[in-house]
Write a structure and sequence with these properties.
This protein has helices at 3-8, 32-44, 73-82, 166-180, 193-204, 234-238, 293-303, 329-342, 429-449, 514-535; strands spanning 12-13, 19-28, 50-53, 110-111, 136-137, 182-183, 215-216, 219-223, 229-231, 249-252, 255-263, 266-274, 279-290, 320-327, 354-357, 366-372, 389-396, 405-413, 419-424, 450-452, 459-460, 497-499. The protein is an alpha+beta fold. The structure holds flavin-adenine dinucleotide. The site of flavin-adenine dinucleotide has 38 residues, from helix 2, strand 11, helix 7 and helix 10.
């Protein structure tokens, strides 16, 4: 915190090299879930002093702004590059450290690296069922939330967390919709999309509940008065807190939390390092929230000596099937005809929304999304009419197992000097069946729309490509060794340590997880706010 604030927070010093400051809540990690904690605490416990630390740099302004909103292409690339962590060797296109076959590195992310991600073949299997070669991270203010696609579907059927009462889960999901500014109406003028949904719905809606029929994907995006789109980064979640620090909130970039400090199973604070200067400080806190992503949240708990049996286990990533389709000329013609009749003066928006084929346990146990490919960050080889080539992404739920895990070393360290990770990950026979079924379902959907761009048809991306890693600090109803935290995200046995992020999600989900993890974060933050208000009720 800046020095005037520090004075209010009762800064003292313990020895010459370790300044100590005191806050009510320390949040580690500035992605969507850490930011949700900050926002809800500011709203519901306005007197609470909150410090958020982030290992990465601020790459956009206001803080956490989505980099897609940066209009200058050079500035956007600089922001993406600055998000790629300490070890640039894992970056896309690096000539020395080649990417594993088929692995795509998304702008703003970097690969965990060969050893850590458990290369295919580690157990002799060369068929890509072992390891998670696509495992990626982002290290910057806003985390992956400054780079994401903003798809925010609600989980349905078996994807839902049943340990939280249904009405409470729905309320939390509603709060997450508000925090992320989710809408379904940002792209009503997307080229051909309505016709695409009509064709898919005609075949795939049979047997589905009304709310699980083919529809537009809820997206975290705003349309400004000049018609431009503003994609939700964590600036949208933080609101006024994104602009500047206040008397009760500070966001401190370039600051790594090395370990939590414990006394009698309660956290009393944490040790920080300002990475550019190497300066170490201690923060004392009444509550600590660890929101460091699904791989680094368990890493920080491990580094702090908090090691419940389930820590790092149940790691899961949604196997992802992709296929690109050239839309059938009849779809293009029908869409043009409708547009001419209904909107004679309108031009097609060159940037697309996303169509959604929801997960439906009975009829379609996959999460399907259809996107305009010429608007994707991965360039097409040919000039195409906007919207006339679409990409189908079909996500499967993983067969979740305790053996799939991130393991931390007690002796080796990563590029930040934190315990080195090794991922142990395998697709099971059940996964293989689901993947084959998803390929069939994606091929069926693709044929309803046109012809495969690549005649080989649907293919599976290498494990880790979904960027939706879950389960590693999962919640559960009881401290029975199969979960790390309770249904308010409080780590078992610690009283005041909360975990946040996709790692908290315990269920086999197929849909994009951020809406759910922001909902769980809002619920955890409300728990802290309630406790803060109770403890401070006597102070007027
Ligand atoms: C290209 C792309 C597209 C995506 N599309 C979607 C989508 O459409 N829908 C969807 O639901 N999800 C999507 N995701 C995933 C989504 O971005 C994540 O689910 C979300 O950002 C997770 O939020 P989080 O707060 O848990 O973690 P993160 O956003 O990963 O943030 C964690 C932060 O913690 C910091 N940190 C880690 N360790 C420490 C430490 N020890 N000390 C201090 N700071 C630390 C990291 O630097 C990081 O900034 C996408 C991701 C990418 C990259």
């Amino acid at each position: 915190m800046t020095s005037p604030h520090s004075a209010q927070r009762g800064v003292s010093t313990a020895g010459p090299a370790q300044p100590v400051e005191t806050v009510d809540v320390l949040i580690v990690g500035s992605g969507p879930t850490g930011s949700a904690y900050a926002r809800v605490l500011a709203d519901e416990a306005p007197g609470a002093r909150v410090l958020m630390v982030e290992a990465g740099p601020q790459v956009s302004s206001p803080r956490g702004r989505h980099v897609k909103n940066i209009t200058d292409p050079e500035a956007r690339v600089a922001a993406q590059t600055a998000s790629q962590g300490p070890d640039r060797s894992a970056r896309d296109g690096d000539p020395v450290h080649s990417r594993p076959p088929g692995v795509m590195v998304r702008p703003g992310t970097y690969l965990l690296g060969d050893k850590a991600s458990g290369v295919p073949g580690e157990d002799g299997s060369a068929d890509g069922t072992v390891g998670m070669p696509g495992a990626s991270l982002s290290t910057n203010v806003g985390g992956m939330g400054a780079h994401w696609t903003c798809a925010c579907p609600r989980p349905g059927d078996g994807e839902r967390i049943t340990d939280i009462p249904a009405a409470e889960l729905d309320t939390a999901l509603g709060r997450a919709d508000e925090l992320l500014n989710v809408t379904t109406s940002a792209f009503t003028d997307a080229p051909f999309a309505e016709e695409v949904r009509k064709r898919l719905g005609a075949e795939l809606d049979a047997g589905r509940k009304p709310e699980r029929r083919v529809r537009t994907m809820p997206l975290a995006v705003d349309t400004w008065s000049d018609g431009s789109r503003h994609w939700s980064g964590t600036d949208v979640i933080l609101g006024d807190l994104a602009e500047k620090d206040t008397a009760s909130f500070e966001l401190r970039p370039d600051t790594l939390c090395r370990r939590l400090l414990l006394e009698d199973s309660a956290a009393v604070g944490a040790e920080m390092e300002h990475l550019p200067s190497g300066r170490r400080t201690t923060v004392r806190a009444r509550w600590v929230v660890v929101a460091c992503d699904a791989l680094r949240t368990p890493q920080l708990l491990f580094a702090s000596g908090i090691r419940p049996t389930a820590l790092g286990r149940y790691l899961n990533d949604q196997p992802q099937i992709v296929v690109a389709v050239r839309l059938d000329p009849t779809i293009l013609a029908a869409a043009r005809e409708t547009a001419a009749a209904e909107r004679p003066d309108a031009t097609f928006n060159p940037v697309s929304g996303v169509s959604w084929v929801p997960y439906d346990h009975e009829t379609h146990p996959f999460h399907g999304q259809v996107m305009q490919l010429d608007a994707s960050p991965v360039p097409l080889d040919e000039e195409v009419e906007p919207g006339s080539i679409v990409g189908l992404g079909w996500f499967c739920a993983k067969d979740v197992r305790a053996d799939d895990r991130v393991e931390f070393s007690a002796t080796e360290v990563d590029g930040f000097g934190m315990p080195a990770m090794t991922l142990h990950y395998q697709l099971t026979d059940v996964d293989q069946e689901r993947i084959e079924a998803a390929k069939t379902a994606a091929a069926r959907a693709a044929r309803l729309l046109g012809t495969f761009l690549d005649p080989r048809g649907p293919r599976r991306l290498p494990s880790g490509s979904s960027l939706h890693y879950q389960g590693t600090v999962r919640m559960g109803p009881a401290d029975d060794g199969t979960s790390v935290c309770d249904t308010y995200s409080r780590v078992w046995g610690t009283d005041n340590v909360y975990v946040a992020g996709n790692g908290v999600i315990p269920t086999e989900t197929a849909c994009n997880p951020t809406l759910t993890s922001v909902a769980l974060a809002a619920r955890g933050a409300q728990d802290i706010a309630r406790r803060y208000r109770e403890e401070n009720a006597h102070v007027s």
